[in-house]
Amino acid sequence: MKAIYIQDIEPGLVFTSCFALRKVELRDSGGKQYLVLELGDRTGRLRATYWGSNSSRLARSLSLYDLVEIEGQGTVFRDELEIKIDNIRQVAAGEYDNTDFIPTSATPPQKLMDEYRKWVKSIENEYLFGIFRELFRSKDFKGRFMLAPGGKLWHHAYLGGLLEHTMSVAGICQKAAELYPGVNRDLLITGALLHDVGKAYEMVWTTFIDYSVRGRLEGHISIGAQMVREAITHIKDFPEDLANKVIHLILAHQGEKQYGSPVVPMMMEAVILYFADQLDSQASAFSRIIESERDGKKVWSDWVHLIDRFIYLK
């Protein structure tokens, strides 16, 4: 376990510790080159600067996802906490435990997967159940799905977060199916369990959570729809109308085209899934911010740019 985490750093603290390299940029000021880095671990991320004479060489040798050990101190620049680096070296694989750098669910992956299977087994429609059987024939998908985060920064941004989010959405959808007559419960739960499967390939996680090349080019909605459509082609006599409905749930689950959905919800089940997904993702994000910023004295969080507001902490 490393000695100092991002959350421990404060102005004036002198320390030596290891961090994941999230950004590298070589800049020039008055003819002198320096590095601007973003360093992170499982507790957060901070901007850092290095003014050494070897900045140009380091910029060529350092890569994203590298682990670097730095000697530095906490400082304040333009009212923002950052790190002033005195010395920096690349860290060889095996010197540190990756769990120091990527946050992980408190629930073991296999336990999360067992709970997910219970939801799958509750689906009575043989065709819908068959989609899961086909998807999980792939050991690669199963392994990635068990560990995948729910997002990069905003909600469920930790290993196992995708499964946690998925089952929370399924729980909300189950309640909605009990409340509203006419809802196809099996279809809705299938949509809840499948809506984010594309994130297993949209995200990568080594020393920090990021988007894969495929993830940036296609997005998890497109990837997930492709995966499910492919699974359906292997199920004999799968009803075309049912296939269209399942794919629609995946494509419409973010609600609006401006938020990434190719289509808007056009079925009762799709509307419910959209709001269930929104409820769980927003509640998770609010909980994270409240937990990380509440210290007994603060009344309001820092300004949250993604949602353009402060969050009340009391």
Verbal overview:
With 314 residues, this protein is an alpha+beta fold. It folds into 2 domains: 6-99, Nucleic acid-binding proteins (OB fold (Dihydrolipoamide Acetyltransferase, E2P)), CATH 2.40.50.140; 103-292, Hypothetical protein af1432 (Orthogonal Bundle), CATH 1.10.3210. The chain is built from 11 helices and 7 strands. The chain has a 5-stranded mixed barrel. Strands 6-7 form a two-stranded antiparallel ribbon. Strand 2 (32-41) and strand 3 form a beta hairpin. Helix 3 (126-135) packs across helix 9 (220-233), helix 5 (161-179) packs antiparallel against helix 6 and helix 5 (161-179) packs across helix 11. The longest helix is centred in the C-terminal third of the chain and has 26 residues, at 268-293. It is elongated and about 70 Å long. The model has no long low-confidence stretch (mean pLDDT 92).
What can be said about this structure in brief?
Helices cover 41% and strands 19% of the residues. The chain has helices spanning 55-61, 109-121, 126-135, 139-147, 161-179, 185-194, 199-202, 213-218, 220-233, 240-251, 268-293; strands spanning 14-29, 32-41, 44-50, 67-77, 80-90, 203-205, 209-211.
Secondary-structure blueprint of this entry?
Blueprint: E1 14-29, E2 32-41, E3 44-50, H1 55-61, E4 67-77, E5 80-90, H2 109-121, H3 126-135, H4 139-147, H5 161-179, H6 185-194, H7 199-202, E6 203-205, E7 209-211, H8 213-218, H9 220-233, H10 240-251, H11 268-293
Keywords:
elongated; 7 strands; alpha+beta; 2 domains; Hypothetical protein af1432; two-stranded antiparallel sheet; 5-stranded mixed beta barrel; OB fold (Dihydrolipoamide Acetyltransferase, E2P); 19% strand; 11 helices; 314 residues
